[in-house]
Amino acid sequence: MFRKPVLLFLFFISVVPGFSATISKTIFINRGTFTTVNNTTFPFFAFNDSQVYNSLNSVLELTTADNLLLTVINNDTIIHGFDVKNYSGINDTINPGDTLNLNLSFTQQGVFIYYDSYNYPANRYMGLAGMICVNNNLSAKKYYWNIKDHQTGFNNSISAGGSVNFSQYDPDYFTINGKSFPELEDDTTATVSATMSDTILLFIANTGQSSHSLHFHGFHPKCITSSDTWIQVNSGKDSWPLKRMEAVILMIVPDKTGKYSVHDHNLVAVSGGGIPPNGMFTIMEILP
């Protein structure tokens, strides 16, 4: 399905005929502290654009004509791994302070989840999972939702070197791009603000430990691509279930103006620390 990656590292971006490009990107594995909407804190990891930790994993964007020269630097003190779901031939480990160089290209559009494959699923659960968004529509308005769930005690235990039993997992915080409502409304990469003349693309990945179902008020998004064969591509509906480590691209072409909410249909996930609506909840605004 995909071309096998070859190790390569360059320090430039070159554009070639046919609008194809070689895109160089560096991401860092960072350790830090996650602060929830009600200021509860727990240990967390993330793939960031710099050596400075933040809870938002880097979003990597390209088209099917592009090559991605990806450098992954382990900025942590323990071994981590790197893999891309549904992309063969990677699954590497990275020692503390070491660097992994990859040349990636994709023949199909979609959202591909990159993640920490070492000490799986604990390190991935701790935050180390992001999105590679492959799409050839250059005119659409694009938004990115990396949805996760968190159980405070699990993060504390894993960070201290302990083990957890995911069969007893009971998350208490739920986020999109590392934020919950109302903080999420300040994230312009996630909060939809468009007009009726726009084509909206939503790149969504469930990188948490639980399944979720996103419910849209006002619209029936159409599925453009899905990593889960259970989801019917080109179908349209108002609720979209996402198993863990699955991803979709949804399209909305607005036919009316107004403000419309989107939330997890499991209302527990609309809360944070047991208080709603401090969870997976956002508001789309469609202007004339």
Jot down its keywords.
mainly beta; 43% strand; disordered N terminus; 5-stranded mixed β-sheet; 2 helices; 288 residues; single chain
Q: What does the model show?
A:
Helix content is 4%, strand content 43%. The protein has 288 residues and is mainly beta. The strands form 4 sheets. Strands 1, 2, 3, 5 and 8 form a 5-stranded mixed sheet that branches. Strands 4-10-9-6-7 form a 5-stranded mixed sheet. The chain is globular and about 50 Å long. 40% of the residues are buried.
Break the fold down into its secondary structure elements and pairings.
Elements: E1 14-16, E2 20-35, E3 41-48, E4 59-62, E5 67-74, E6 80-84, E7 92-94, E8 99-104, E9 110-115, H1 122-125, E10 129-134, E11 141-150, H2 152-159, E12 173-176, E13 193-195, E14 200-206, E15 212-216, E16 222-226, E17 239-242, E18 246-252, E19 258-264, E20 281-287
Parallel strand pairs: 2-5, 4-10, 11-14, 13-20
Antiparallel strand pairs: 1-2, 2-3, 5-8, 6-7, 6-9, 9-10, 11-12, 14-18, 15-17, 15-19, 16-18, 19-20
